Amino acid sequence: MKKLFIALMYIATSLFGGEINIAVAANVSYALDELKAEFVKMHPETKVLVTLGSSGKLTAQIKNGAPYGLFMSADMDYPQALYKEGIATTQPVVYAQGALAYLSAKELDFKKGISLMAHESVEKIAIANPKAAPYGKAALEAMQKGGVYEKAQKKFVYAESISQTVAYAVSAADVGFVAKSSLFSPKMSRFIEGKDWAEVDAKLYTPIEQGVVLLQNGGEEYRAFYDFILSPKAKAIFKKYGYIAE
Question: Does the pLDDT value for residue 2 go beyond 70?
């Protein structure tokens, strides 16, 4: 019986005892430490290596042969494109739905909503590159639907990813469109809702559904992380960081 137990433990360690290399959209970085910690509790022999970036740039890396086995995108389009090309081995599944927020280190009247972007008090607006970052694309859509795009576009300060937009929003710009999830990070606790940030009206942009796929390099350990990301434990963590996760 003891030998059988040791044999089973050896098999488990062999299956879940290495490294996994995953590509993750920058907006997830704020929840990632807790997600990894919870996963490691269940798979202590597995080391999770993470590359963060805009979904567009990560997709380009994957197409060029980057050795990721799993991709957590900030939208569904990029993983769907990888699936159509046969690079992703699973169809995209929504793991969370994100939301946009305005953030500023200056005193601004967030009660004005999207119209604030056209106000003379706002001279620079931080926005993630909409060509590579789905949150940047959503910000453009919000300004277009809100009728302020024409006045706002000349004020744009572009960031490479949504996490870089956070840094710009409190330094190089007067205000920035950021992932709401970033504001639930312990490092961002000094920023107060209504005073330093406010949520963008969700009616102004298409829901930001974020998709996960397994890639050609993904094996059993990647499948374990994939299953975890879709589990109730992971969804509870996403909700803690301001996502909608059902």
Answer: no
